[in-house]
Amino acid sequence: KQEVTQIPAALSVPEGENLVLNCSFTDSAIYNLQWFRQDPGKGLTSLLLIQSSQREQTSGRLNASLDKSSGRSTLYIAASQPGDSATYLCAVLHNAGNMLTFGGGTRLMVKP
Amino acid sequence: GAGVSQTPSNKVTEKGKYVELRCDPISGHTALYWYRQSLGQGPEFLIYFQGTGAADDSGLPNDRFFAVRPEGSVSTLKIQRTERGDSAVYLCASSEGGGIGNTIYFGEGSWLTVV
Fold first, then answer.
1. Best of A3, A45, A51, A99 to mutate (most B CBs within 10 Å, chain B)
2. What is the bridge-based pairing of β-strands A86-94 and A30-38?
3. Which is the most buried residue in A78, A95, B65, B99, by most CB within 10 A?
């Protein structure tokens, strides 16, 4: 059974710092990996999708990497801003099915 | 509509009652998913529809949970004899095809509280 773990569970940083969120998964037979953002009381917004054949994806100040063989992904946020405060979730899509398996999320607070 | 729409946004119900949660996917999206998210945790898969049929219902926790999508668009998640442990956010998502290669778009969820 696929298990997804995110470390740290919570992170508080001052504005302007570069930071890295970590995601690991136990079964490397994935089709893709997505990073989502969730604001309090809201649904999920897709940030980046990395196909299993890709190594990284970039969008603005966000960069996500994928090392499928080692079961790891990182989300790098450059020059963090208070508006980046949210919960960040990673999820993997299995080769065999259409369900996403999510990690527990990292709650990020960026202080002004 | 522009995004995935879920109603009600909040529902408080008494233990033992029946509840229906509705999802309107993005127009034209054939794939529809239901997930459940407990406080402080990531979402957990419940069921996946491709068109009108449930292609994978392996995540439904027990037979009190049922979902339908009769016309291949709107879906309803039905929970019978609700229990306090059913309290969670129920998230609906849709994509153009299956999840492979397609971005999955989530609604804002239906917050269910069973008292």
1. A99
2. antiparallel
3. B99
Residue A83: other Cβ atoms inside 10 A:
8
Tens of each residue's pLDDT in chain B, 115 residues = 579 999 999 999 999 999 999 999 999 999 999 999 998 899 999 999 998 988 889 999 999 999 999 999 999 999 999 999 999 999 999 998 765 667 788 999 999 999 9
Edge to edge, the sheet with strand B65-68 lists: B5-7, B19-24, B75-79, B65-68
Contacts of B30 (CB under 8 A, 6+ apart): B50, B51, B72, B96, B97
Restricting to A residues 50-69, those with a Cβ less than 8 Å away from any Cβ of B are 51
- Candidate from A4, A31, A97 with C-beta closest to B56: A97
